[in-house]
Structure formats: C-alpha cells, structure tokens
Amino acid sequence: MKKAPPEKVSQETVTFNVAELEPLLSPPAMDIPPFVPAMVKVKNGETMLIRPLQKEEAPLFLDYIKKLMMIDHDFYDIVGARVYAEVLGWVRNRLKDPYQLVGLIDGHVVAFCNGRLMNENINISLHSLAFRRGLRAGAIMYYAKCEYAFETLKQKEFWATYESYNGLKRWGIGMAQPSYPWPDVQHELGGAKVFYVTKNYWDISIKRYLEEMIQTKLVRPVPAAVLEANAKLVMPTKLEED
Asked: Which CATH number characterizes residue 134's domain?
C-alpha cells in the first residue's frame, strides 16, 4: 500500500536491515523454566525418558512426521500436517513460547507431545502422539505436559481440543473436561471448541485420573546413564497404525 507523505522528506526510500524487522515478527520469549527431564517405567518394564526435543534434532524428527501426512484415515494426515507446522514454527521462531517433548527408550522415539504458552496463566495443548503401541506412552506424555503446566509453570488453565474421536473419548470425555462456549472462545487448532482443565480440577481429580491411567510415576532426577543412553535421537523405521 502506498500513500503520499504529508510533508517534504529528505529520503524517499528508507531501507531496513532484517535484524531490525525480526523483533517485530518474533517477540521476546517469556522467561519460563524448562521441562526438567523425567523417567518412567512403561508397561513392558522398560524405562522411558521424557525430555525436551532439541532444535538440532528437529530435521530428523520432521522427516518422520512427513509420513503421517500420507495416511488418510483416523485424522493422521491433519495431525501430521499440524505437528509438522508446529515444530517448524518453533525452529523458525514463528510460534509463541512453545515446548516440544519426546519420550525415548534407549534413544528410540516412542512418543511426543507439544504445546505452548498463550500467557502466564493459560497453557495451550497442541498434540500428543504415540509411535509405539502398547506402552501407554501417549497417555504418559499427556500427563507430562499437564504436570509441566500446573506443577512447574504454575499456570491456571490447560486448554485442549481434539481432532480424532479417540482423543475426544479418552481425554475430553474421559477426563470430564468442561468446555467454553463456542464460538465465543475458540482453540487455535482450526477454531475448534476449547476443552479445559483448571488448576483446582487438576489437584482434586485430573492428576489422580491420569496417574491411574498411566500406572506409573515421573521420576526425577534422572541418572546420568539414562540421559546418556537417550542423548542421540533414533526415529522409528516404520509407522505403527491402529
């Protein structure tokens, strides 16, 4: 858009260095504590480490997520597309205050979850994925990000929505999550209905519900040997579809 200046100017062309423009496109991150690595015993007795995904690991992770976009049932394709965009948005500094967590067994990625902070009070849940079946890994990751929101970040609400029927059944209905009036309040994933958990609801009900579901505990601190065994990311060689 162009508009004539209302005054004489000495320079008709003003240029910007992109370093001057970047702060307008990626505002400063909030000062938040990171997720502290934790380990759990999964259903088959193995130890799964939960830790933040590192940006240098993102290309390997994204190569695998591309495969999800090719599966046209049970909403794998849209979940894959959205997770790809979320992780890439984090790498490119185009997503506000995100977190990306991976569940690892001897370096092998068996699960993933992510979200972001809308503000100091509200945590936006984005996705939780299990790449290996039968471990309750997806449920553990959902628990981990709820624990991160309420116990570490001390936030007041955790907002979620669901693309799949299974997700709605397990989390929305299973946790008896209330929802905000729609369309007055919308989740950023497609403007869908917001299901939410408050800190009080977490304390009196949801924490216990999830702990009963995952049948394990997050253990900290993690021994150096476990951290070392999961230092190098190994993505699955094939997709496990339901």
From this structure: 3.40.630.30
- Which residues constitute the domain of residue 221? 34-158+216-229
* pLDDT tens string 75-126: 999 999 999 999 999 999 999 999 999 999 999 999 999 999 999 999 999 9
What count of other Cβ atoms lies within 10 Å of the Cβ of residue 230? 25
In a domain, 241, yes or no: no
Backbone angles phi, psi at 80, to 5 degrees: -60, -45
Cα–Cα dist 48/39, whole Å: 6
Q: What is the pLDDT of residues 187-199, one digit of tens each?
A: 999 999 999 999 9
Cis, bond preceding 221 (omega within 30 deg of 0): yes
Taking the C-alpha atoms of residue 10 and residue 131, their distance in angstroms, rounded to an integer, is 61
When divided into structural domains, the chain yields a total of 1
> How many whole angstroms from its chain centre is CA 31?
18
